[in-house]
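Summary of Year 1 activities. Much of the first year was spent building the evaluation harness for sequence design. The harness presents a backbone, in tokenized form, and records the residue chosen at every position. We chose the following record to illustrate the format because it has been used consistently in internal testing since the harness was completed.
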């Protein structure tokens, strides 16, 4: 009876009345686990906590409920571990982890929230409809959604804890907390196509490889290529309402950096602390594998909850490779037949199920909300052909390929413009046309074509030297360098450069291309050498630090003057 076998995070034993997926408490220590296999009464369990010290014969109890999260006011600003236990930052940093088997509620049970009804007595309400609001933080209004269909018998304005009843719907009391199983997507009306970009303020991403709101992106690259910095930049600057950052099994110190750094950051749009619209889920590599596995589900479920309120949520998982490794580890312990590189055969379907929870939806309440998912992948040796990158690319429509070579040359963000792609360009094109400029697409495509041409020319130069190139080709190399160094390169650590709005992105690229167009026209008359020595080139190189559009007017004016002037 009780535990019959323990193999690292996998425990086998008899559990009374168990169902697949149930959360269990294992042994005297009451460790948290999940039933992942059942044969008769005998359950195979993955433990979310360290199983050291567990003994054969100790009891296992089912909670008769799947692994789930608590939803309600107080989520925003929280820092949780993979199974939604609140982490005390200080403890985390001192390496003093949550004691095993402890039950800490995810939401504060004592805190009172001011509930303001949005429905009145006698109203017909439907499940998912917003029936009241709570000011969760300065930035986020928490919308309390009806848990049932029915008639509002009673609704109370006032200060309540999450467990106190705020309304009665057709005889049923309703409070502000609910549980939701993490592996099950929350219901919505329908998915709707997205034609709007998630604006990130990162030029190479927005202009060249945009992600649509509600889309999914994969940022992949070797060790130190800048995945985490890209994710941080998105958390900070992207125009989502709510950010959910899942730090999944990254090195301990890196996660500490996030925990130290995030609470210090301010939201650029409001000047308020960024944590007032952020939830952090932190798993370090010294936490058990299974907890990492749970963390991405915890994250996406919280994202769905805010989506259902009508918010645009961005979920960032850094790095999903650690999650895949957890799957591999557990699968190995279960002695399942391994697939490619030891990952389980169901790796791709798990990854798919995660990214499929992104999207723009019509909510049950009749509003619109979205989840944009950005997952990092850390392929060993930077080899994109490995299973996790490949599986991820099947379900994401954007690939930001980070490059060791670029990072080595300190070209950041080290997004390789030749390997990366976005399948959302057609979708977001009209947004750019309406909000920025009619010729956005043409400009972007022309600049991209120049970069491609540059790489071909560089091959030739490598073989037979620059001398073999025509002046026009040499001009392409020079202008491409402007695109690379003055547009694509963007410092995350420079006060102005760290973020570029869409209009400025457009104007900056347009000035570079304008220079190219005029220079190309004048090249035979004026000669390449003279053109390359024009002082306007230095101004183009500094244009990214401009803060108003008039500066770009001046630059364009000067490009025109200096190139037409040469004509004499
Ligand atoms: N946009 C950027 N601007 C300036 N420097 C950057 C930028 N991106 C990355 N870097 C530099 O590269 C370093 C490594 O980046 P980062 O930690 O994001 O890499 P990573 O891909 O997450 O690595 P790992 O695989 O170890 O997790 C940073 O500490 C920073 O110095
Ligand atoms: Mg990293």
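For this record, the design step produced the sequence shown next.
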């Amino acid at each position: 009876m009780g535990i019959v076998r323990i193999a690292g995070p996998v425990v086998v034993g008899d559990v009374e009345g168990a169902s697949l997926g149930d959360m269990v408490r294992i042994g005297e220590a009451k460790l948290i686990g999940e039933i992942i296999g059942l044969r008769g009464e005998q359950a195979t369990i993955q433990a979310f906590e360290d199983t050291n010290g567990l003994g054969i014969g100790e009891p296992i109890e089912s909670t008769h409920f799947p692994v789930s999260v608590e939803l309600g006011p107080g989520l925003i600003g929280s820092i949780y571990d993979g199974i939604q236990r609140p982490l005390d930052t200080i403890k985390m940093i001192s390496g003093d982890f949550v004691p095993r088997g402890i039950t800490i509620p995810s939401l504060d049970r004592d805190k009172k929230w001011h509930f303001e009804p949005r429905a009145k007595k006698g109203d017909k309400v439907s499940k998912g409809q917003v029936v009241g609001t709570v000011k969760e933080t300065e930035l986020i209004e928490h919308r309390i959604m009806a848990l049932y269909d029915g008639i509002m018998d009673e609704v109370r304005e006032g200060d309540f804890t999450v467990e106190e009843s705020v309304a009665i719907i057709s005889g049923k009391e309703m409070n502000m907390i609910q549980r939701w199983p993490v592996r099950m997507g929350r219901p919505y009306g329908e998915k709707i196509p997205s034609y709007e970009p998630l604006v990130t303020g990162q030029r190479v991403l927005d202009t060249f490889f945009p992600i649509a709101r509600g889309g999914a992106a994969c940022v992949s690259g070797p060790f130190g290529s800048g995945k985490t910095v890209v994710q941080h930049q998105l958390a900070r600057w992207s125009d989502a309402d709510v950010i959910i950052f899942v730090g999944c099994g990254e090195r301990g110190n890196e996660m500490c950096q996030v925990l130290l750094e995030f609470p210090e950051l301010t939201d650029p749009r409001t000047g308020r602390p960024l944590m007032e619209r952020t939830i952090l889920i932190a798993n370090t590599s010294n936490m058990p594998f299974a907890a990492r596995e749970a963390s991405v589900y915890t994250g996406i479920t919280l994202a769905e909850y805010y989506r259902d309120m009508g918010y645009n949520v961005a979920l960032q998982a850094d790095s999903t490779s650690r999650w895949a490794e957890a799957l591999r580890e557990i699968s190995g312990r279960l002695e399942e037949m391994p697939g490619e590189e030891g990952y389980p055969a169901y790796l791709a379907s798990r990854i798919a199920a995660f990214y499929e929870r992104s999207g723009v939806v019509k909510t049950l309440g009749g509003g619109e909300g979205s989840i944009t998912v950005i997952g990092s992948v850390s392929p060993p040796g930077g080899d994109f052909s490995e299973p996790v990158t490949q599986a991820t690319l099947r379900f994401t429509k954007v690939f930001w390929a980070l490059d060791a070579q670029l990072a080595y040359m300190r070209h950041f963000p080290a997004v390789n413009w030749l390997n990366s792609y976005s399948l959302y360009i057609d979708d977001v094109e009209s947004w750019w046309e309406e909000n920025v400029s009619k010729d956005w697409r043409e400009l972007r495509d022309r600049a991209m074509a120049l970069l491609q041409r540059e790489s071909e020319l560089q091959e030739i130069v490598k073989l037979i030297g620059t001398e073999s190139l025509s002046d026009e080709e040499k001009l392409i190399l020079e202008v491409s360098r402007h695109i690379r160094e003055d547009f694509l390169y963007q410092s995350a650590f420079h006060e102005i450069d760290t973020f570029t709005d869409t209009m400025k992105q457009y104007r900056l690229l347009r000035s570079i291309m304008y220079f190219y167009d005029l220079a190309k026209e004048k090249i035979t008359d004026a000669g390449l050498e003279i053109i390359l020595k024009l002082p306007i080139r230095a101004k183009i190189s500094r244009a990214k630090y401009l803060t108003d559009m008039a500066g770009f007017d001046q630059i364009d004016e000067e490009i025109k003057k200096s190139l037409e002037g040469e004509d004499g």
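The chain has four domains: 3-66, 108-176, 190-422, 440-566. Quantitative recovery figures across the full test set are reported in Table 2.
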